[in-house]
Design a protein that fits this description.
Blueprint: H1 2-128, H2 135-140
């Protein structure tokens, strides 16, 4: 029985040691798990912080892109309007230049025809007065210029 009790005590002592070792191992693993959990929580917070920074940066850039897009469309509309105005002004300038050119040609024609009429009238008057015209005076008489065919008459 004593042998049995000794063996019982040895088993109990071994069980105590095993239990203590097990408790110590469990405690160590809990501490490691707690440290690992804290580490994971810290990493998760850092990842969330990075995500929030990225989200903020993306939001700011998207707002700037939206503003730039609106400004671009406004500038494009102003450019197209100005381009139309330039084309319209060029066309108007060209038309006014052509009109001026036609009117100038018409004026020269009228002046020339008037001079020709004067010359004829003076020649007639000299004939009536029986004055002789010299060869030099005959050369001064200019031939008549035909009227412009592509010009709309101007009432003068």
């Amino acid at each position: 029985m004593e042998k049995f009790q000794k063996q019982q005590k040895m088993i109990e002592e071994a069980n105590k040691q095993k239990k203590a070792l097990l408790a110590k191992t469990l405690n160590e693993r809990r501490l490691r798990a707690k440290a690992e959990s804290a580490k994971l929580t810290k990493i998760q917070k850092e990842l969330n912080h990075l995500d929030s920074l990225l989200t903020a940066d993306v939001s700011v850039i998207r707002d700037k892109i939206e503003l730039a897009s609106i400004e671009f469309l406004d500038a494009q509309k102003r450019y197209e309007k100005a381009e139309k105005e330039v084309i319209s002004s060029k066309m108007n300038l060209f038309e006014k230049g052509e009109t001026k050119e036609r009117l100038t040609e018409h004026l020269y024609t009228i002046i020339h025809q008037n001079e020709v009429r004067k010359a004829k009238k003076l020649a007639e008057l000299m004939e009536i007065l029986e004055m002789e015209t010299s060869a030099e005076e005959m050369e001064l008489q200019a031939p008549s210029i035909p009227t412009l065919t592509n010009f709309n008459s101007v009432h003068t």
